[in-house]
Amino acid sequence: MLNKEKVIALSAGMDRMRKPDRALLEVIYEQRLFKLFVPKEWGGRMTALPEALEIFETVSALDGNLGWLVTIGAGGGIFAAYMEPETARVFFSPKEAVIAGSGVPSGVARKEEGGYIVSGEWKYCSGAAYATLFTANCRIAGEPEEDGTEAVRAFAFLPHQVEIIQDWNAYGLRATESHTIRVREAFVPDERTFSLAERKGCFEHAIYRYPFQPFAVVSFAAVVLGLARHFLDEAGALAERSMKAWNAAIPNRFEVVQEHMARAEQRLGEAREHFYRTVRESWRNTENRGELTAEESAQVVRTGRQAARTAVSCVQDLFPYLGMPAIMEDDPLNRIWRDLHTAAQHALLVY
């Protein structure tokens, strides 16, 4: 796993410079953290979902930017089973292979012989600066569904087809380079289009049968849990360093903070335990039966969202008691707080 001391030493600089440190990206490539859900024959690790979530949580507890980028980058591996097998092999086999993109259908594609002509813009494409492939959803012009709405399909763009608009100016997760991408009249051959409703690869790993929405929700929730863990650890270290000064200025202040920390620790621990228990049960059901029921999927989504809400609440309840350091932009506590709230803002964790 990533070296804790090295990550801590680089975190502030990444936040300030708004980009990930190249040395840490190299470690991610070496440890194949972007390939947790890529077949082993293509250099992947094919990790079970509960174990992958623990990795997302652990990396996020080191640095929110890295946790988010590993989670997003690894998540793209599930597309391997939905692309044409030879096309997927070419794209996922390289050591530095990683996808950036968006599931929002904010592009339009029109059918041409052998493929499609695509134009569109997609916001919040994390990892855009170093992606080796971009994927995005588009509406298919002139191909309505049975209900009259336009059909939607995913398209894979090569880097030279994509313009990166460097507009990610959020107050948290600053180093994720979650920029807007733009494509103008790009030709995408049929073999570089796919749908999550049309599995093409012959891979039997359960991750390719796990429903996409629960998968995405619990992945992001694991990031939020890791950030909350990081915040509580940093808050505890601050309290220990400040005990004498705090109690000299306000009698029993340290003890009051400790009480609030103990409650936060208990709530976070209980939420985390319930989260992983639910995910592991759903994973066993997927492995044993090949699929989840609609209610099981909904339960996973509810549990992931509740875990994220609890994590944010634990941090928010403790934050006012930590004094002025917590509001200083260059303090680790403030950076973790900003990253936590940015990650928890993702629509899948809210709606």
Explain what this protein looks like in three dimensions:
The chain is an alpha+beta fold and 351 residues long. The protein has 3 domains: 4-81, Orthogonal Bundle (Butyryl-Coa Dehydrogenase, subunit A, domain 1), CATH 1.10.540.10; 99-194, Butyryl-CoA Dehydrogenase, subunit A, domain 2 (Beta Barrel); 209-349, Butyryl-CoA Dehydrogenase, subunit A, domain 3, CATH 1.20.140. The chain contains 9 helices and 7 strands; from the N terminus they run αααααβββββββαααα. Strands 5-6-2-1-3-4-7 form a 7-stranded mixed beta sheet. β3 and β4 (150-157) form a beta hairpin. It is globular and about 80 Å long. The two termini are 33 Å apart.
Q: In a nutshell, what does this entry contain?
A:
This protein has 351 residues and is an alpha+beta fold. It has helices at residues 4-17, 22-30, 49-60, 64-75, 85-92, 212-249, 253-289, 294-318, 332-344, and strands spanning 99-112, 115-125, 133-144, 150-157, 163-165, 179-189, 193-194.
Q: In the CATH hierarchy, what is the superfamily of the largest domain?
A: Butyryl-CoA Dehydrogenase, subunit A, domain 3
**Which regions contain 5 or more consecutive residues with pLDDT less than 50?**
none
Number of E-state strands: 7
Query: Approximately how much beta-strand content do the residues carry?
Result: 15-25%
**What's the alpha carbon Rg, rounded to whole Å?**
21 Å
Q: Give, in spatial order, the strands making up the sheet with the most strands.
A: 5-6-2-1-3-4-7
Largest sheet: 7 strands, mixed
Here the CATH topology of the largest domain equals Butyryl-CoA Dehydrogenase, subunit A, domain 3
CATH 2nd-level architecture of the largest domain:
Up-down Bundle
The CATH C-level name of the largest domain is Mainly Alpha
How many separate helices?
Answer: 9
Indicate the mean pLDDT: 94
